[in-house]
């Protein structure tokens, strides 16, 4: 799918594929430098982080290990509550490991904050966060996000892993939805 094929469901393209590629190359270079000479486990948070994980991992020169977690945040509509349930846990024991959590988006930061407490209790050597997108609300939460791709406006976005009712994850760019799609 490209930007010409998005039809009328999308309002606008917020971040192009090229901008994402360039940003991930930049973040990958920083991660390579920061973890030089160390083993690194990157943990993708399903399902949204699938695209970021795949492209970030390939942009790294570092031979990382990859694992996945799936969590579900209880909440109404598009707001998360911070009450989180693990749907799929890591296959890996992270005790003593350097861990980098890879996220698609941080909105309120509640999900990530819970996840960091949970993973932190397993005794990793270090834990850091990389996210492609961050919304303004997240800036109010005391989470140290070491690698941020883009700070974006407080709008619902889809594409590049992000969905609306499980659709649009496969768009190669990040866009905003037209109001008619979500009944606005
Ligand atoms: P919190 O608020 O806990 O939630 O940081 C983060 C999770 O909320 C989802 N989310 C979005 N999903 N477009 C999406 O497709 C968005 O604009 C959006 N904002 C938040 C997402 O699952 C993320 O992991
Ligand atoms: Mg997510």
Automatic annotation (TrEMBL):
Gene3D superfamilies to which the protein is assigned, alphabetical: 3.40.50.2020
Compartments, record wording: Cytoplasm
GO MF term list: guanine phosphoribosyltransferase activity; hypoxanthine phosphoribosyltransferase activity; magnesium ion binding; nucleotide binding
Keywords: Cytoplasm, Glycosyltransferase, Magnesium, Metal-binding, Nucleotide-binding, Purine salvage, Transferase
Statement: the UniProt record of this protein carries the keyword Glycosyltransferase: yes
E.C. designation(s): 2.4.2.8
Entries under PANTHER family matching the protein: HYPOXANTHINE PHOSPHORIBOSYLTRANSFERASE, HYPOXANTHINE-GUANINE PHOSPHORIBOSYLTRANSFERASE
Name recorded for this polypeptide: Hypoxanthine phosphoribosyltransferase
Organism of derivation: Wenjunlia tyrosinilytica
């Amino acid at each position: 799918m490209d930007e010409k094929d998005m039809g009328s469901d999308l309002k606008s393209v917020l971040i192009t594929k090229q901008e994402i590629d360039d940003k991930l190359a930049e973040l990958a270079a920083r991660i390579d430098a920061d973890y030089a000479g160390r083993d690194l486990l990157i943990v993708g948070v399903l399902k949204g982080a699938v695209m970021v994980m795949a492209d970030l991992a390939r942009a790294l020169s570092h031979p990382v290990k990859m694992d996945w977690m799936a969590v579900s945040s209880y909440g109404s509509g598009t707001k998360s509550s911070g009450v989180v349930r693990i749907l799929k846990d890591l296959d890996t024991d992270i005790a003593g490991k350097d861990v980098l959590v890879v996220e698609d988006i941080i909105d309120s930061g509640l999900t990530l904050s819970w996840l960091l407490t949970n993973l932190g209790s397993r005794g990793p050597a270090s834990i850091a966060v990389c996210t492609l997108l961050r919304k303004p609300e997240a800036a109010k939460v005391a989470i140290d996000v070491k690698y941020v791709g883009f700070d974006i406006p407080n709008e619902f976005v889809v594409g590049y892993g992000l969905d609306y009712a499980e659709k649009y994850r496969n768009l190669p760019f990040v866009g905003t939805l037209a109001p008619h799609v979500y009944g606005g």
